Amino acid sequence: MKRKVFELRRLLGTAGCARAAALQFARRGSAILISADAKSSGPSWVAKEVEDPYQLARVLTCLRDRRPALSRQFPKVVACHGRWAVLEYVPGRSVFEAMLTSLKRDEHAEDVDVHVRGTAQAMAALSGLDAPALGVSGTVRTHRSFAGSLETLWAQPVFRVWLSGRHRDPAVLLGRFSSAFLASECRDVTLGDCRPKNTVIPFNSPLCFIDLQFLVGSPAHMAAAWIVALDRVASGYINPSSVRRVRHWQQTFADTFLRLAPQHAEGLEFFYAWVLLQMMSQHAAEHPWLKVYLTHYYARRLNRFLGGVEGAAHEEDALPQVAHGIASGEWSPR
Predict the structure, then answer these.
(1) Interval 110-164: pLDDT, tens
(2) Weakest-pLDDT range from 4-13, 120-129, 159-168, 200-209
(3) Phi, psi of 130 (to 5 degrees)
C-alpha cells in the first residue's frame, strides 16, 4: 500500500494537483479513494489499476466526440500512468442499493424504474460504436463461438433433469438463429461490468457507470448480463411480491433496450440464455451446498424464458419476442 500511495501522490503532483503531500488515501476493495486533505468532506478522486489506462482515456475522448450525451455518464480521467488510472470520484448510492431498499421496504419505487430505463438507454447508445476502430483491444468473436460453452453447460445432467421435455436439447434455442446471425461478429464497444452495483445515482446528474473497462463485444451481451444479474438477486427471495418486483425491473429494462436498439433482439435472446447458464455455473460454484436449489432455479428460469419466447411467436405484438420470454411468469409489481 505504501508503494502505491507514493506512486499516486507523485502522479497527481505531476498532473498539477496542488498540495500533493496533503492527500489522504483509503482502500476500498480493489480501488483507492483519494481526498484532497484530512478536512475534506469526502473523496475527490478514485484510483484503479487497469490493463491500459491510456486506452481508457482515448475511448472516453472518442465518446465525447461521437456520443456527447453518453460520455457524461462516465467519470473523467484525471491522470494516468503505467497501470494507474485516476478518475473523478462520483458520490451517490448505486442502483443496486436503491433496488435493495425497495425490496426491503416491500414497496414499488418509481425512481428505481427511472434508473432502470436510464441504464438501458445508455447501453443502447453504445450500439454501432466499432470497438477496434476506437482502439479497444480484444478478440472479435462470432456468435457461433459462444455456442460450444452453452451446449456444454446445457448438457450437464444435474441441470438437464430440471428442464422440461423438448427444452433438454439446446437445439430448441440454437435452431432459432440463422447461419448469418451465428456467423456475424460481435465488434461493438461494451462495458466489462455494468451491473446495478456499478451504476451510481449522482446528485443532479445522469447515471454514472463507475467500472470503466471497455471491451469488444455485443451490446446484447452486456444487456443480458444486466438482466441475469437480477435473476441472481431474485434467487435469494421467497416473497412473491419481491420476486415480481425484480421481474418488473427486468421487463422494464428489456422493453427500453429493445425499443431503442431493436436490431439486438436476436442477440439478446441468444445471450440471455448463454449468460444465464454461465451465472448458474458461477453461482453454484460459490455456494456448493446450494447446488441443487440453484440448478433447479436457473433451469426454471430457462424453461420459462424458452416457453415465453415460443409462445410470443404466435402473438401479434410489436415488442420483440425476447421481451416476452424474459417477462414470462408473474411480473407486475404489487
Answers:
(1) 789 999 999 999 999 988 888 888 888 889 999 999 999 999 999 999 899 999 8
(2) 4-13
(3) -70, 115
Contact 43, 55 (CB under 8 A): no
- Residues sharing a CB contact under 8 Å with residue 132, sequence separation 6 or more, in sequence order: 140, 187, 216
Domains detected in the chain: 2-88 (3.30.200.20), 93-326 (3.90.1200)
3-state secondary structure of 16: coil
Q: One-letter amino acid identity for 39?
A: K
Please list, in sequence order, all residues whose beta carbon lies within 8 angstroms of the beta carbon of residue 123, skipping any fewer than 6 positions away: 191, 194, 219, 222, 223, 226, 257, 261
How far apart CA 48 and CA 142 sit, in angstroms, is 31
Q: Which residues pair with 159 in a beta bridge?
A: none
Q: Give the mean model confidence (pLDDT) for residues 293-313.
A: 87
Comparison of pLDDT for 292 and 329, the residue scoring more = 292
The Cα 207–Cα 226 span in angstroms is 15
Long-range CB contact pairs, 2-9, < 8 A, 24+: 4/32, 4/47, 5/32, 7/81, 7/82, 7/84, 8/32, 8/34, 8/47, 8/84, 8/86
Quick one: pLDDT at residue 333? 32
Judged by DSSP in three states, 218 sits in coil
The amino acid at residue 44 is S
- Grid coordinates in use for 83? 497501470
Say whether pLDDT at 320 is over 60.
no
What distance, in Å, lies between the first and last C-alpha atoms of the chain? 48
C-alpha 239: how far from chain center: 25
Where residue 239 falls among pLDDT bands split at 50, 70, 90? confident
Determine contact, residues 23/9, Cβ cutoff 8 Å: yes
Q: In sequence order, what DSSP letters do the residues of 63-95 get, joined into one string?
A: HHHH-HHHHTTSPPEEEEETTEEEEE---SEEH
Nearest to 43 by CA among 53, 29, 59, 32: 32
- Rounded to whole angstroms, how far apart are CA atoms 187 and 127? 10
Alpha carbons 246 and 135: distance in angstroms, whole number: 36
Read off the pLDDT band of 38 (50, 70, 90): low
